Amino acid sequence: MRRTSFADSPRLLGAMVASSLAFIVAFVGYPVFYNLVMSFQEVTLGNIRDFWRPFAGVANYRTLIQDPAFAQVTINTVVFTAANVILQLGFGFALALFFNLDFPGARWMRGMILAGWILPPLVIAAIFKWLFATNGGLVNEALLATGVIARPMTFLSDPASAMPIVIATNVWFGTPFAMILLSAGLSNLPDEVYEAAAIDGAGPWQRLVRITLPLMAPTIFAVLCLSTIYTLRAFDVIFGMTGGGPVNATLTFPVWSFQFSFQQFTFGQGAAIATLMFVFVIGVSIVYIRSLKSETRL
Amino acid sequence: MPTTRRDLARLAAAVTLAAPGLAAPAIARAQGRTLALWHVFNLETEAYMREGVRSWNAANPNLRIEERIIPFAQYRTELVRAIATGETPDLCVIDNPDTPSFSAQNQLTDLSARVAASANIKADKYLPGPWSTTQWRGHTYAIPRDSNTIALYLNHEMFRAAGLDPAKPPATWAEVVETAKKLASADGRVVGIMFSARAAEDATFQWLPWLWQAGADIDKLDTPEAAAALQVWVELVSSGAASRDVLTVSQSEGTNRLISGNAAMAISGPWDTPRVSQQARFEWSVAPLPVRGIGQEIRASALGGWNWAIPQGSKNPDAAWRVIEHMSQPEIMRNSWVSGRLAPRTDVTVENPAYPQAFAAYSEQMKVARARGPHPRWPDLSRPVQQAIQQALSGQASAEAALRTAAGVIRPILAQVPLRG
User: Fold this and answer.
1) Cα separation, B190 vs B260, whole angstroms
2) What is the ipTM, given to two decimal places?
3) Beta strands B301-302 and B369-370: pairing type?
4) Which of A46, A129, A246 sits opposite B247 (nearest CB)?
5) Residues pairing with A138 in the sheet
6) Which residues of A touch chain B, with CB atoms under 8 Å apart?
7) B5-148+304-370 carries CATH number 3.40.50.2300
8) What's the whole-model pTM score?
9) What CATH number was assigned to the domain covering residues B151-302+375-416?
10) Domains along chain A?
11) In this model, does residue A149 exceed pLDDT 70?
């Protein structure tokens, strides 16, 4: 198919590209650059308005890495992100397949599940914090009433179980997003392939493994990248549920960065964390953009 | 500390509602001169701010106060952002432990000359604790707005059911441990006591009274006295007398457990009194914090509350000062107690106060309330204390070891600027 595109009018193309580039430089490039500069400066409440502040070299990064919490925060961030991405993708895919069966009410139910994703994360944090409360929390009351446990569990207030609970909450919050993207991918799969497979006698399992998964690979990969980026910057759910505690058990880089900048007023260290995270997110983004290119080639 | 503002559900709702309001000050400014005031108070319940602003606006139609209400959890972030972009309001409130951070970094207008010329605002008319948080190197950078402190809420029905007399609340550390153990139910559904030891300022705020009552202070964390003060909390949590959830709940969430009947006692501040009064379906009262023991009766409590301050960059510091003078009149400050805030002045009398028993108890407790710091790096001092508390309560370290680590972090900071420096 011959596409008519902006390429047909070089001047219009130039103007469009220049304006979006200017937008990106002003609203994405400048903040990133500003943050990078801040991470090499000593920034206090007294000089935060200035651009030229005392140069600190790599002191902010060194302080971070030497902080006794650094190793744990790194592990927490990796665990939180990996668990979220895998579980959101798994549940999201299962739900997408389920609603793809298009039974009566499927669309309506799929819409209802999206409600979780529309709620503000701070509200979700407050609700789940109460659900998992040790005394009077709904989960404990249900387990006590059914005789599964004899005494209430200390879900969020035990450093060993706080992270799984926070992860579960964020999975509940993030799964609908993965589901909707995967649903869109599923609805684009060609029916002919499935009809041919049915004629050849392929069962449901074979259809899933041999047809659906390979055809969905680019979409799955895109969701993988996107949910990695979204989970890495997740802040509200953790902040609202535990504030990073107990004893740093749920402290991740975004929450730590917030604490440095807006609780301790050590803006340089907050900026250093943001820069480290930015480098990682850029890496994921490059992978994602490359996958988009290969997808269009399909 | 007005921790009701930390009620996250309400906070999220407020954020959503506040967004369209951002455009309002610009419109008002175009119509005449206004004075931008930033604060965190809910005008539905905060009669002091509501009535004070109303009477100012009635008397000054050409210099109306234009309020911007920011939820507590975002307030500091917004203030820092305003300083960074040079878009500070004409007048604002600042949480008292944060005030020295902003004063020492020269972000607040020096009010010393204005105080010297004022008839109403004089150091000797204020309680020494709140006033001390406004001082930095001999200058006054803020004026106390309201004060609070913490005490012990009791559920009388649970006391009686356990064969205890609510008229005789636990008066010592040993008694509070023993009483809380008796009040805790065997199935673990009801605990004896709630307080807040979460990874936030709440933990420091709630533990400092115990530390002070032991005769120690934040610069003496590696002492047996400090360890004893933390050990009481460890004993409360490890015995099940207090819920382990103290590690995650805010002060007001702790009070929620009392209201819902899941805790027989709760340590919190007067900001929760109106809510307890409206929602608790049982007889309750407020008792002073227990002291260390007989013959060791150092009474102490921690001071919370907000100050007025005029940020650097205020477009109208003179008018802002007149608003502070207006709001500091005893007859206007009298309204503070309606929302559970105490006046920081000595000449404010509240006749026929609402919740009279709680008012009397908190007023008494206020007399022994001490300021946190004051120190320009208070957040850096508070954080290691929070960590030590969490480590000890979760059993990761003994009280002594956890506090020794905290003392090691705090010592170099205090070597640069001593407490009350």
Assistant:
1) 10
2) 0.87
3) parallel
4) A246
5) none
6) 44-46, 48-49, 120, 122-123, 125-127, 129, 133-136, 144, 150-152, 154, 156-159, 162, 240-248, 251, 259, 261-266
7) no
8) 0.89
9) 3.40.190.10
10) 69-265 (1.10.3720.10)
11) yes
